[in-house]
UniProtKB/TrEMBL annotation:
The lineage of its organism: Bacteria, Pseudomonadati, Pseudomonadota, Gammaproteobacteria, Pseudomonadales. GO terms for molecular function: acyltransferase activity, transferring groups other than amino-acyl groups. This is Acyltransferase. The chain crosses the membrane at residues 56-74, 131-150, 162-182, 191-209, 221-244, 256-278. Residues 320-548 form the SGNH domain. Residues 25-241 form the Acyltransferase domain. Pfam families: Acyl_transf_3 (PF01757), SGNH (PF19040). GO terms for biological process: lipopolysaccharide biosynthetic process.
């Protein structure tokens, strides 16, 4: 990420990392550099585009309008189907910067002269040139920005139409000029000027501080802690402005300063690449801590057959590959469910390969519970589930394993789902219970425990669930997430009534001492990728533990 920031391609780096199993954005200390990447890319490409249009004698106003509208149209078309690409791509965010570029152009002498020569534009300019009109523009702009602050949430598709509010609001305030009331009284106050001067270093400092604090305290930050971090950001931003930014932006020896900045960025990029290739200088830590905190996202995606037999957001069931169904003559088992099911695939795969007692088929979709008629935030769920049911009727497998994060879903349609599976000729339906969920990734919790211990003792393989478990409605006497318990309490009778077999995962992973995050004191192989998804090590442990209940004699 550091090299991405130094080379102004952070947006592309984050885009490439994004996906269902990507670590939470709030834990990426340089996440905020994505916008600087888009900004710098615009500064390079936009002048070249205008220069090319000028050389080809294409009217510049036509280029500006067409490119701006095309960028906004791409943004509107992609915000729902390709939200990650739309958020990080300069093609879909360029219209925001073009809007600012147009506004800046209107203030140049040539534009003013052109407006003065046009009676129509002169009349419009005179209307908006009055003090009252300018003040009105600035007030409307401030209202637009205020609306964006309080209305835009992470659940809304962004940028899309919602990006219009902060963009237009900012343009209106700037266009109103220094004589507008908002600009003259509010934004020209000494406090606002001081904030404006340190705004850029404040932007750079605030996010890393919050991110490191969230990593160190996964149970959450108090209001006082967040306020303290904000105050620290202001202090650091002020120091940065006074002793770094201001000296570099003023004075003599400009060429030397430019060379020093460029050399520093190149050095940062090279050092970042060396550290990245070296696995983050993992040799600083004991081997067991290194293994317990490994984060191999690409290896994990490969293990669960991401975008091959696990349909990510935006993929439909027609994209399941032929390899999702094993060939052969052994009894066929179908794994059907959401990302939690995909996470245990590698464990089932190992069980099948070791015993040879069954073949395996995998039909898993992001955020899609294996329930008849289910529809969720993934708009393809209903169609994907129907496709899976039809495929099961075609294959007539011996066993179907239903696996999901059951606590997230309404289970009312589960009996109907099991009934349809039995009607399709399935001999045995297994309901696999949910895994324990955590407040933070267990590997990060373990690392924080190790680093905060003066003696640097390696934490136990079991973590205290009463302290680190993701409690929603409280914890039971054994310290387990009651939401998981409630899901199990519902699933057990539903399984019995429907003629399905229920197998608990938390019974295999948890006891009164806590829940496993790795197999033993001497093992460093982490069981969790994030707060709930099992790694191949975790999946292998669980499948070995439940093999007898599945009727499999494991080696």
């Amino acid at each position: 990420m550091c090299w991405g920031g130094a080379t102004f391609v952070s947006n592309f780096v984050l885009w490439s990392e994004a996906g269902y199993f990507d670590k939470a954005s709030v834990l990426k200390p340089l996440l905020h550099l994505w916008s600087l990447g888009i900004e710098e890319q615009f500064y390079v490409v936009w002048p070249l585009l205008l220069w090319a249009a000028w050389r080809l004698r294409v009217p510049l106003i036509l280029v500006v309008v067409l490119v701006g509208l095309a960028s906004f149209a791409l943004n509107m078309m992609g915000v729902h189907d390709q939200p990650t690409a739309t958020f990080y791509s300069p093609l879909t965010r360029g219209w925001e910067l073009i809007t600012g570029a147009v506004l800046a152009s209107l203030g140049t002498d040539s534009c003013r002269e052109a407006i003065a020569r046009s009676p129509r534009f002169s009349a419009i300019a005179s209307i908006f040139g009055s003090a009252r009109a300018r003040s009105t523009l600035s007030i409307v702009g401030l209202l637009f920005i205020g609306y964006a602050i309080f209305r835009i949430k992470e659940t809304l598709p962004f940028p899309g139409k919602w990006a219009l509010f902060p963009t237009i609001g900012t343009c209106l305030i700037i266009a109103a000029g220094s004589r507008a009331w908002i600009n003259r009284v509010l934004l020209s106050s000494r406090l606002m000027i001081a904030i404006g001067l340190i705004s850029f270093p404040l932007y750079l400092w605030h996010w890393p501080l919050l991110t490191f604090a969230r990593s160190a305290y996964p149970e959450g930050l108090s209001w006082y802690a967040r306020s303290g971090l904000l105050a620290a950001s202001v202090v650091l931003a002020t120091i940065t402005y006074l002793y770094i930014e201001k000296p570099f932006r003023s004075g003599s020896r400009i060429r030397v300063k430019i060379f020093a900045l460029c050399a520093s960025m190149c050095l940062a990029a090279v050092v970042a690449c060396i550290i990245f290739k070296g696995g983050g200088l993992a040799s600083r830590y004991p081997e067991i801590i290194q293994r317990a905190t490994e984060y191999d996202l690409e290896g994990y995606r490969s293990a669960l057959r991401n975008r091959v037999c696990f349909m990510d957001i935006g993929q439909d069931a027609t994209q399941y590959a032929e390899e999702c169904v094993d060939k052969g003559t052994a009894p066929l088992w179908v794994l059907w469910g959401d990302s939690g099911a995909a996470a245990i695939y590698s464990g089932l795969r190992g069980l099948s390969d070791r015993t040879g007692q069954f073949r395996l088929a995998q039909f898993t979709s992001s955020s899609c519970a294996p329930l008849v008629g289910f529809s969720g935030r993934n708009t393809d769920c209903k169609a994907n589930n129907q496709w899976t049911l039809d495929k099961i009727r075609e294959l007539v497998p011996d066993t179907v394993i239903l696996s999901a994060m059951w606590g997230n879903y309404d289970l009312s349609s589960l009996p109907a789902t099991v009934k349809q599976l039995h009607s399709a000729g399935v001999r045995k339906v297994v309901l696999l219970g949910p895994t324990p969920a955590w407040k933070d990734t267990p590997s990060r919790i373990a690392f924080n425990l190790w680093s905060s211990d003066p003696l640097h003792r390696v934490p136990s393989q079991r973590l205290d669930y009463t302290k680190y478990g993701m409690g929603y409605d409280g914890l039971d006497e054994d310290g387990r997430d009651t939401r998981t318990e409630i899901a199990e309490q519902k699933l057990r009778p539903l399984a019995h009534e429907s003629g399905a077999v229920y197998i608990s995962i938390i019974d295999k992973m948890c006891n009164k001492d806590g829940c496993l995050m790795r197999a033993s004191e001497s093992s460093g192989d982490a069981f969790y990728l994030d707060i709930v998804h099992l790694t191949p090590h975790g999946a292998d442990f669980v499948m070995k533990a439940v093999a007898p209940e599945l009727g499999v004699q494991d080696r």
